[in-house]
Amino acid sequence: MTKMVAANCWSESLYPKIKQAEDFSPDQFYKSQWQKKPGVSIYFLVYRWVSATLLFVYAVATIFEKDPLSRPSLTYPKYPIYLTNWVVWMSAIQALLATGIVTHFFLKLRNTKMDAAEDESILVKNLTKVYWATQTIAIVSSIAVSVVFWVGVYNP
Fold first, then answer.
1. Is position 125 within any domain?
2. How far apart are CA 71 and CA 65, in angstroms?
3. Residue 11, in any domain of the structure
């Protein structure tokens, strides 16, 4: 039953989204949607690095218990059971992938005169597909966990 649900989720929800990534030009992965000039904006690159660093530091910080009465210790036994921790890690992975893509194209376009659309390497294609999937999972799971928390858990 679980395999059937997972296969159904993959074939109807996630796989078509990943296939959509092939229809877009590479500049949609390394440019801000408000950017008019070709190439990678240094401001967008800095934004990606800052957001990825902050999310990754936060994800690592969630591993450690914050108890003011005792020294920080790892919480391995109970850490994986909280969905919020999984969402934080998925968001951090998505941000790191986005930063990698933007940095790759920044360096590639700076060092060569080729257009980014010419970069058809297997690594870049697969990286954009993985990024697309992690972004979709991170956004949907963030919304789902937030709604479940505010509807089911929060008691004012």
1. yes
2. 9
3. no
